[in-house]
Amino acid sequence: MLKVGIVGLPNAGKSTLFNALIDKPKAMVAAHPFTTIDKNIGVVNVPDETLFQLAKIEKIDKVTPTTITFVDIAGLIKGASQGEGLGNQFLHHIREVDLILHLVRFFKDEKVAHVHAKIDPEEDLAVVNEELLLADLQSLEKKSKTEKISTEQQQLINKVRDWLNQGKQASQIFLTNEEREFIKTLNLLTTKKQFLIANIGEEEINQPAKEINRQPVLSVCAQLEAELNELAWVDQQKFLKDMGLEKTLKEKIIKESYQALDIITFYTIAKRAEARAWTLRRGGMAVEAAGKIHTDFVKNFIKAEAINAKNLIEVGSWHKAHEMGKIGLHGKEYLVQNQDVLEIKAGVK
């Protein structure tokens, strides 16, 4: 299952944002650091209008969207890589996620203490990233000293270590595919992609997007979004109208988190009993997609029929698309495209 870790300094609003995204259970929120010790976990459906359009044209009642898991990880502080503030435990939680949703505090509230003397978003971002980098340096050192590795692997570790010592993240270094595969086994924190979000005050919601290091970032009032998430839909719409807003940012955050992952979505409508969305790594083949649907499909794979979802919706049905010759026939090595509708043909044994 795809995991997105909500990361940032203590009192940045991570648990509040988690509560804005998850229906249940809710994370405990307080105005002091380290309210969260154990990670909070919640699964959300990824909004997907295309999936519902497919269900509509094929008259399918059961619809199953794909999902992602959000993990509310306790705040990191300076020295986390040395164990400060239970840092080792929290860094381990970050290793388990596929994407880092890095929440940076912009809001001002005297009742919610900041771990530093002042609110400085760029400094806060740098502190967390430095701890991730220092933890990676420790991982490289441990690999060199405690495990038997080849000369080529040691040279690669030295190359990455020198890069990190320049204050650069491992995700930014150029590596061959073979080198990248070895580095992937180390599960370095700075190889993970980051999705930055600015946590702003309610008084700033109608202002332009905030910038971090001169780059605009998605600006969210986590407190407001969490309150909206508690309301019934009718009350939520009235609240939004009073605030001069069209919709909550919950859907946008979920969608952008999903899109930031290196994956694609494909659909199945087999037997017209269920319209379902699935995830697949970008560059994944038809046989891999088949395995997602059912493990037996891998060894018994015969062929895959495929059509882009939007093209199928325009035609009006799978049957019509077949009659018009719009559906492609592919073998195991077909590279599945984003928003393909697939029907896998497999032998029965």
Q: Could you list some keywords that capture this structure?
A:
single chain; 349 residues; alpha/beta; DNA polymerase, domain 1; Ubiquitin-like (UB roll); 2 domains; six-stranded mixed sheet; 13 helices; 37% helix; GTP binding; magnesium; ATP hydrolysis activity; ATPase_YchF/OLA1
What do these coordinates show?
The longest helix is centred in the middle third of the chain and has 26 residues, at 121-146. The strands form three sheets. The chain has a six-stranded mixed β-sheet, sandwiched between helices. The protein has a six-stranded mixed β-sheet with strand order 3-11-10-14-12-13, sandwiched between helices. It has a two-stranded antiparallel ribbon with strand order 7-8. The protein contains 13 helices and 14 strands. Helix 1 (14-21) runs parallel beside helix 7, helix 2 (49-57) runs parallel beside helix 12 and helix 4 runs antiparallel to helix 5 (151-164). The radius of gyration is 23 Å and the shape is flat. With 349 residues, it is an alpha/beta fold. It starts with a strand and ends with a strand. The chain has two domains: 3-36 and 73-255, DNA polymerase, domain 1 (Orthogonal Bundle), CATH 1.10.150; 263-346, Ubiquitin-like (UB roll).
